[in-house]
Each structure stands twice: as C-alpha cells, then as structure tokens.
Amino acid sequence: MDRAQLILLGLPIFLFCSDLFNLFTPPPHRPHQPPPHVPHQQRPAGFTPETLDFPSQKQSGLGAVGYGNTVEINFCVSCSFKGTAVTMKKMLETEFPGLDLILANYPAPAPKRLLAKVVPVVQMGVIGMIVAGDRVFPLIGIAQPPAWFNSLRANRFGSMASTWLVGNFLQSYLQSSGAFEVLCNGEPVFSKLKEGRFPGEIELRDLISKKLTRPSIVSGSY
User: Fold this and answer.
1) Which domain CATH number covers 103?
2) β-pairing, 180-184 with 100-105?
3) What ranges does the record give for the region Disordered, renumbered to this chain (predicted)?
4) Nearest to 72 by CA among 98, 27, 105
C-alpha cells in the first residue's frame, strides 16, 4: 500500500474517531439565569438550544428600553445563518438598549443527528473496501469479488474521492435544521420553520416591541 493510499485511508479513520469522541463527550454546562424582575418561563419543547459564545450585551442603565427583557435567536449554525443572526442582534441592541440577547444553535432532530454519525462509518467502510477489498473478500469466503467492486477498483482514486464528497454532503445535510427562531421572554416571536423565510429587520423590531414588558415607552423609528 503506497503513501497516497495510506493517507486516504487514515484521514476518514481519524475523522470517524473524532466524531465518536464528540458524540460521547457531554457538552459543557452553561447555565443561564433569567434577568431580574422577570419570572422564569418555560421554553418551547422540541429542541435543546446550544448556547454559543458571543460578546455579552452591554447594559445602558435602569432606564434602558429593553432592560429586564430577554430575546433568544436560535438558528442553524451548520446552515451558515450566523451572519444573519449577528446582524439582527446588533440591530436589536441599537433599537432596545439594555435588552438581553442570546444567540444559540438550533440542532437538527435527533434521528438526523444520529444518521449524520453513521455517514463517516460508511465512508470509512467503502474506502477501506476499495483499498483492500481484494484481500477482504477471500477472508469472508467470497472467492470471486462482485462486479460492483471491480467497477470501483477500475477507478480507485476517483471512487474514493466521490465517496468522500458525497459522504460530506450527506453529513452536512443531516446536521442542518434550517431554523431561525426568535423568542422574546420565552414567547415565540418569529419562526423560519413555519414562515419559510427570514424576518426583515423592521418587521422583527416591531414584533419585539410588542412583546416587551414595558411597550409603552418604546418609541423611535429604525
């Protein structure tokens, strides 16, 4: 087995071991305490947000418009929605000073996440079969390799590259939720999963202003 084959075989094995380590390693616990003067409210069931590390919201004093209110933006990180979430966060910080803003990952459903963990195993198996299948089949009692194996071995490196690309695409698809969910004080404000689109900045500002605990002091235009 030459060096190129060793690299192509070793890389999927390394990524598979890394996925297994991440799967069975519990995420760090980051408790979130509700802001003062706001009773704790239950979050909608059906998902567990994974809090992300972003710069904390700066408070602007007790007289701030958003003081005592919390807005959560739960979005699909693997869908590259982070830029939109950060833009909305900055807009809300400007419109409602003192508002506590939380950005968190909205994970895909559990069955899709489990299937995403299976993809690297299949990738490794297919690539391993392409590399060493001629020695594996006799060990399991198959003297003559099947026709599909001969087709894969006819273009060995092309088959391994295709397996790698298709597997990565499937893994990315299975890890994505397509969500961009906005909650204010625990109450849903906007759901991309239901609406099928992102909220506009002015639209989101108006929706948030109606949910604040002191909407009568909200004024100004965007």
Assistant:
1) 3.40.30.10
2) unpaired
3) 28-49
4) 105
